[in-house]
Amino acid sequence: MLPARSAASVWGIDAGGSRTTAIVVGPEGDVSVAHYGSVSIGTAGTAAATAGLTTVFESMRSELVAGQFAFGCIGCSSAPVAGESPYPDVLTKVIESHAPAGTVLFVNDMVPLLYAPPMSAVGIVVSSGTGSCVLGRDSSGRLAKIGGHEHIVSDEGSAYSLGRAALRTAASAIDGTGPATILSDLASEHFGMTLPCLGRWLAERRSARAMVAGFAPVVLAATADGVARRIVESNAAWLATAVEVALDRLDLGTHPSIGFSGGVMRGSALYRDLVVEG
Question: Is the dihedral of CA 120, 121, 123, 129 positive or negative?
Answer without folding.
Answer: positive
